Amino acid sequence: MDTQQNTALTRALAEVPGPLPARGVIHIVIPHTDRFTVVGNHLAQHPGISTTAVGFAVRIQSLPQGTEVGVKALAARYPEGEKLIAAALRELEAIGYLQRARTRLPDGRIVTRTVFCNQPAALLRPRKAAPHRPATPQAPAPAPTPQPGPVLPLPPQPAPEPDPTLQPVQVLAVAPRPVQVQAPAPEPEAPLATAPPCAPAPPPLQSAAPLFVPLIPPPTAPKPPSRPLPQPCELTPELHRAATALLADLRRHTPEFTLSEDDIQQLAPAVAAWLEREAHPDAIRRTLTNDPPQPLRHPAKLLRHRLTALLPPPLPGAHDFAVPSPRVSVTPFQTCDGCERVFRSPTPGRCRDCRTDHAQAAA
User: Fold this and answer.
1) CA distance linking residue 116 with residue 88, whole number of Å
2) Is residue 32 scored above 70 in pLDDT?
3) What is the CATH number of domain 35-130?
């Protein structure tokens, strides 16, 4: 059996046209005659989605129309788990190959309708090509003009084989009659007048196309400005020296954070701001170098982001922990101008009894 397989493979390789490559994959293409699905390279080689998403796209595309392709239905059909399938479907939906929409049926039920498009980018092209389509039917419009040419009734002209010249004059008189008969020929031009109403056809294309427009923002979208590096209240020589030493020492603990002198001079004020807020050097080192991305291409940019986004607040002072005591307003004592009696009042004057007696005397 092994010899037969090797012989078959050798025979198939011999039939491959052109020289075989020294390395890489060699394709043996056998045309399919049944049970096959056409998959575009824009999907099979898409760099923005995972191989799992490409595999499920091919599987969904190969299923007959009307087959359930929900997460649970695919999990029951294939060995992958529901989480992996849901992540793959989200990738396809974000790029436009898959679209899930809730629609209401005539009987009032609401169902989720799944639409798969094998080439979503092609849905956007007809919107530009649609305005040019009306021009194509106008091109054959001149065709009616040659119709007057088939004035086959003119063959009666051979009838005037006799030399009398009056007969050709009669033929000229007869010529206008077919023209009158062809007067309805402009009727095909009437459909041309009705052709403009076909122009509104693009709107359904425009309404359907947005269903598959990718939900990825354009690369030209404005980005928020980056936050400035933190600065210390006072950059003393001692702080600057300690900050530069801490940055230069990072490569001793984590070789990926090997910085140039220019990077150290730019980041030193931010590290000084951390030290000014009494952050311990070991804590700063752990915060800056913990769990870096792999591979780390720009260590200075990562340190700039972490120094800005993870800046700790200043340590609270003793007065910040003091609980303020509630203030109680006390009404001062006053001496009555009439009876010399002491009473409480915010302003000097008479006591309540003297004010009452004075009011009765005035009345």
Assistant:
1) 14
2) yes
3) 1.10.10.10
